[in-house]
Amino acid sequence: MVGERKFDFADACIYLIMFFTIVVTLYPVIYILSNSVSDMTAVMRNKVVLFPIGFDLSAYKNVLSNKFIWTGYRNSTFLLFVGTFINVIMTICAAFPLSRTHFHFRKFFMIMIIFTMFFSGGMIPTFVIVDMLRLTDTIWSMVIPTAVSAINVIIMKSFFESIPASLEEAMKIDGGTDFTVLFKLILPLSKPVLAVISLYYGVAHWNGFTSALIYIRTRSLFPLQVILREMLLQNKLQEMITVDAAAADALGATRSIQYATIIVSIIPMLIIYPFLQKYFVKGVMIGAVKG
Amino acid sequence: MMETATEKKKTFGQKVYENRYLLIIFLPVLIYYLIFAYGPMLGLVTAFQNYSPFLGITGSKWVGFKNFTTFFNSEFAFRVVRNTLSINALQLIFGFPAPIIFAVLLNEIKFSKIKGFIQTVSYLPNFISLVVVVGIMQDLLAVDYGIVNRIILAFGGEQIRFMNEGTWFQPLFTISGIWQYAGWNAIIFIAAIAGIDQELYESASLDGASRFQKAMKITIPCISDTIIILLILQIGRMMSLGFEKVILMYNTSTYEYADVISSYVYRIGMVNGNYSLGAAVGLFNSVFNCVLLVAANSMAKKFSGKGLF
Asked: How many domains does the structure of chain A reveal?
């Protein structure tokens, strides 16, 4: 196919559009990165457009000496590991029984779960319930109320269903129970879907701030994203950091620190992203089977 | 036949016993759904009360439809419904086709390495948090130091106060959404295109079809099922437009064009503490959403013979 056709005008247009797309996608990130490591005076004078000018990591020093960045990181890391772990366990507990054809209550429970995708009680009644359970303003309010996501249950269930039933039957004949089937057969064969689902939940925990916004009042419990919101969008930066008195201009320093804050928050994602990318795509494919 | 006959005769107790292990596994999920999904639905009764957290649901006063009439008689009702619908309309018109166009164009690139690189880059913004996306947007569009306004100045234009100009809110909301999600949302279309029988293209080439014709007459029709399903899903989600990005982006000077139903519920219920009014508006939102989804589904069935349910 490649050799058959010559590079024509249409190709030129397509490549141009794609080049433009790449530039538009990457430029904001590069711009922020370059600014964050540049000399603060250069940032203040708007000199940094593409590549860094000078080299100054004092903005990072400032960010990393901020106590709230660290509590935010700590809380987000907790949610990332503990929250995702609970999510995955719960999703398995939902998907496994629902994928078994001999489960008599399968249809009823499936409808019970799917109905919640169409109709929900909404934010306020959910808050009232969480508050009644005395979960508000605890770290668990960011874990338990969002313990299962219906769409992820459907993705995992359709993967489990794709495992041949004959394997299960053989196990049952040898006296295996549903537990044996789950632990000895289904889970060992389901590593790809477990990876995908963990990643989905993990990203949601790392980037999420909705639950924190609704349920959390104490600043030391705020996850990273809420701290970021205060620093980047609510102009609370000045009260949260100690701007170096020697810095020529408070606004310039503030901006440098904001750029550094952005980079500090997305760096874990940028580092692991290239390695995980193929799993994300796989997940979309598994999910697409069922729609 | 024998199997199904005995199956029917099983009592509830027998079924439970037979599925005891599966039921034990499912139990935590059942409890979760009863408390956190169905509990709030019962909690919707607060929409018909003058709910106070101190009095609880049983102690609070019943007020009938008062909260609903309060909402519909306020100036906010029209504004938040209009904004919710117009933001969604913009997303349908511009946001929805973007990943399809991207996927079709990407399919035209024959060098797999370049293709892979473009795809990898295009997913990236999907994994950046909304807070950071809005933070970056605010910086790039800032007055005086923002790069966009500096370009406008360089060309002799006048600076635009993007984030404080109400009329800019919805376009910016849509554009940043395309920036963040178009690449990711294209995955499903790229996969659908990859599944098209290559012979179709070859025979079209023999008939002298141009590349544009092939894209319009083969690629698009072949992925139309996927397009329709995703379109229904998108329409069904219209009213559930999240409040997250709105409350990150808006400020008092853009409320007029920015406030949507969910951000209004958040402000009334969580910030101002009027639980009952918030619950009432939320209930209206959920019902409207359900109706939209069912309507979208039956439309899809009528026009293409395919629906979700």
From this structure: 2
